[in-house]
Amino acid sequence: MKLQRFLTLTLGLLFFFGCETDDNDANETGEVQFSITSIREVENATIGLTINIGVDRANHSGGSVDVSIAGGTYNEDYTTNEGAANFTLDVAPNSLITSFSIIPTDDNIVEDTEELSITLTNATGGLVLGENTLLSYTILDDDNPQSALVSFVSDTQSIAEESSDEIAINLALSAPATTSGDITVTASGDAVLGTDYTIVGQMTDTFTIPIEAGDTTANFNIQSIDNDAFEADKNVIFTITEVSDGLTIGTIPITTVTIVNDDTVNNPTIDFSESNVTEINEEAGSATITFDLSDPTTEDATVTIDISGTAILGTDYDVDGTTETPYTFNVPSGATSAAITLNITDDMDVEDIEDIILTLTDASGGLALGIEIQEITISLIDNDSDSAGLDYLETFEGFDESEDYLTSTLGYVQLLNGQTVDNIRFIDVINNDGSFSDPADETMPSDNGLNIFYNTQNDPVNNGLLDNVLVTPLLEGTGDITVNIDAAYAFRGQNAATITFYYSETYDGSGAFNEADWLVMGTETASDMNDEGFGNNTFKRQEFDINTTANFYVAIRISQEMDDTNFRTRWRFDNIRAVAQ
After folding, report:
1. Which of 186, 202, 460, 572 has the fewest CB atoms below 10 angstroms from its CB?
2. In a domain? residue 469
3. Does 3 reside within a domain?
């Protein structure tokens, strides 16, 4: 029997609730991924199966993702609408989906089932890969007259909790069975066998259905169990897990049966609000967790929540000041909502992401537990850096001669500090072959580095204060850090500059130099370096040991009063490095 059908699967289209975003703001990063891990198709399907790859948010700038298909043989077992087994898909800005199609090849050859592995790699632009980047695609052979495909007739069904009638779960074979055999089915889901339902004639959640030669159908029955509990609808998931010789698991191996609740409550119900945060940064201080009530309360109520997760109650956070679980709070008569407060501890410990799990477990008085959102998980995001991961080195050897290389490409900031001479005279990056130091050995040459030079030309008009600062990008690390900077001077007789090396945990990146924000690591002058044996243009590797409690910046400051005696100066710097000890 030839099977013809059109099936479009939405794989990976994820919806996030409770966050406000501007769809025209493309500054976020979108995650691309599949939402399921496997799919099955018969080789004689005449219309290609459209596979959608979802993006988790709309406010991204677009990009692309590579798709590669392994297993099977392209053009023999399948083709794609992209014309190849490996291709790149573009994702438009603000788009939630991109797609491609796979068309199995109906070859009239008796062969084994083909297993394809579809992998997402190399997300670019405003996209990154999500967790689910692998999809298993099974192509079922339909040419073996000795084998029939077994599938559920429908992938969903429902039964009322109060129903006194059994319902049949039907299976179909694509051809008459050529021999007797068995179909093994396993039940799972949040409905509990023996509590919420029974499987007629079965005692366990894994059972077999016998078939005889010539059969084209099979079935089993289930019966719901009625109770008086007000609860959410529950699902039973039946999966064909094994078939005997002469049978093959078909395209609908899973069916979900929903047991529809029929009970009601007299009081309003309470659920967690859909808009609650799913992440809290450690430095946030606190977060309010809200609850929805189905109707205003008509009498005082008490609500109990269980508190669990990998975050430690009493160490990482508390709930309304309490460090005990379970926690009970009051909801007064007439209330239309409720809330609790998570107070977050901002410690200095470097930690993995930790979870806080809040579960509604009891409501009494004027409230009853709802059936919508009875549990939420909140991720607690650490804001402390692991100094063990800090190994920053800037050699400036990537200098491309562009005017803004230092600031735009490398992220350094040039600041004036009351400078009265030429206001564009900054420490800046230059190329001068062989005039700088090698990162491995400061006595060996390199070609690019930092330079500042000023000469009044013995003209009093050019006298004044030379005072500017160069600040690194933010360096992410805490604890014991070693900072190295190579420095060399020229024109010792007229070079009276003081070089000050700083670090700061409080500088806010504003572009203004406030000396109170900076701690001095060390100072240097041409005279001092000469006394130590470092002559003109000879690099000395400065080394400073600091201890930080937060991410930090490093700065180099040059300050010299330019006058008729001290009329010129030049300093060069190279190989700025910060490494955790």
Report:
1. 460
2. yes
3. no
- The model's confidence at residue 461, banded by pLDDT at 50, 70 and 90, is very high
**Residue 2 falls inside a structural domain:** no
Mean pLDDT, rounded, for 251-266? 87
Produce one character per residue of 384-422: b if its CB has 16 or more CB atoms within 10 Å, e if not. bbebeebebebbbeebeeeeebbeeebebbebbbebebe
Where in the sequence is the domain holding 133, given as residue range(s)?
8-140
Q: Which residues of 67-83 are buried (b: 16+ CB within 10 A; e: fewer)?
A: bebebbeeeebbbbeee
Question: How many structural domains compose the chain?
Answer: 4
My answer on whether 229 and 292 are in the same domain is no
Same domain, 531 and 440: yes
Q: Are residues 289 and 244 in the same domain?
A: no
Residue 4: band (very low, low, confident or very high) from pLDDT cuts 50, 70, 90: very low
The string of DSSP letters for 552-563 reads BEEEEEEEEEE-
What's the token pair of residue 533? Answer: 């044996």
Lowest mean pLDDT among 305-314, 344-353, 434-443: 344-353
Choice among 379-383, 398-402, 513-517 with the minimum mean pLDDT: 379-383
